[in-house]
Input
Amino acid sequence: MAQWTVVGEAAAVPCQTSDCPGTMRIVGRRGVCPVCGKTYQREKPRHSSRLIVELTDLDVARMLAHALRCDPRDFAILGFLASGFRRSEVVGGDDNMVMLPGVHVEDVLLDQQGVRVVGKGQSPALREGRDPKRVLQPVPRVFLEAALRRGFENGPLFEDVNTHQVGDLVKEYARLAAHPEWEEVRAHRLRHWYSNAIRKRIGNQGPTALLEWQDTMRHSRSSAGSVTVAFYSGETTTFERRLEICLLAFAPVLAELQSPTFLQSLPAPLPAPQQNDTPSFRVLSNSVSFRKSSDSERETVSDNLILTVSSTDPPVQVRESEPSSAPVDLAPAVPVVEELPKLEPAAVESAVDPVQGSKVEDVVVEDPPPLEVVNEPSVPAEPPVVSKPERQPQPAPPALPTREQILKAWTSLRVKQRRDLTEEREFIKSLWKWGERKKRLQRMQCSRPGCKEDAVARDPPAVNGQPWPLFCEEHCLRDPPAGWLPV
Output
């Protein structure tokens, strides 16, 4: 008889029936009330509510025209994205916890109008350390010439750009192209435009057209709707045919780029959003600025609170000056001349001293004797005494953990890895179905050749910087490797 194991408690909420005092038990999206016997079901949540923008040929042509004026690098990146590339495949970046290499100079074949690309489907090979498969993807010559114009002889073509900057770059050129919903234009929208352009101009709409579309977009044929169709569909579409389809998709766009009338009649860019140049700071609860002093009157704040403080305008540096009690008049100073009363000559002659009774005699003022300058010998100033800073004692190096601490940290790491892998496996089972679920669960099997058991741990790689490989209970390391230390 099967054994039942307690795995948790079911959530309980009040019954939604108005006159029912019972409590519903929630299992998944359903709730059952044992009192009234009714069952309720919640609506399935939406994964995303953002606006989906579909680009037209005119939108893509305007974006490429502005990029052609601004920078050949941006023109080449937009051209690769519009040719069906993902942004991590162009500039390199993280895809499914694996770093894709991006497009290198050696991957560009100018004469064939193609680029060897490592797609996101090669993530398992990169994770296991195997040589990934490179697919020759057609790209119009004008974008390849712009990419090679940067002058790199080898290595990545766009090592100065990351995936986040590619997203900002696409939005900026959508704004310059006067797209009304430019803030919602993602880099993957250019790949969607390429997919729609292929289906419009591929020529036929039968099963062959579907397979050609899948090969041009680098999709697996197992997603054609039937394993039998994928098995009997024959060989993949040749590169010559895929290049023909690519040039047909770009025909109206390249025709607009070669038209002087189109380049001169581009609409005015939309206004850019206002950027806040004020730097922001985050004050953590354990910082000095957040501690409460003994004489503070403010209330006690929770330790989990994080305050966001925005700095104000930078202070203006002024010269030091002495305080003045009276306001200063900035008008130029005007010399004040006192006007003396004018005396008549007769009045001067009749002026008599009231004591002597005689006339006022002229007063002669003698000049003071000149001052003698005495040159005293100058005393040399003593040099200032500079105190040497005291040497601060060097902090002692951190002590290495003991063997018991290392084993305890290794055990905690194993428990966390097992829990994370189990949760990821359950998430895949709840989200994906059929072939996609099987493919994703196979990636979480043991990395040892020939072993198909579910992985329970990740062992440190032999080379630093590489992803940690997955191993099952039998093949994973029991003890920490030599030289391993807890972080």
About this structure: Residues 278-365 have pLDDT under 50 and may be disordered.
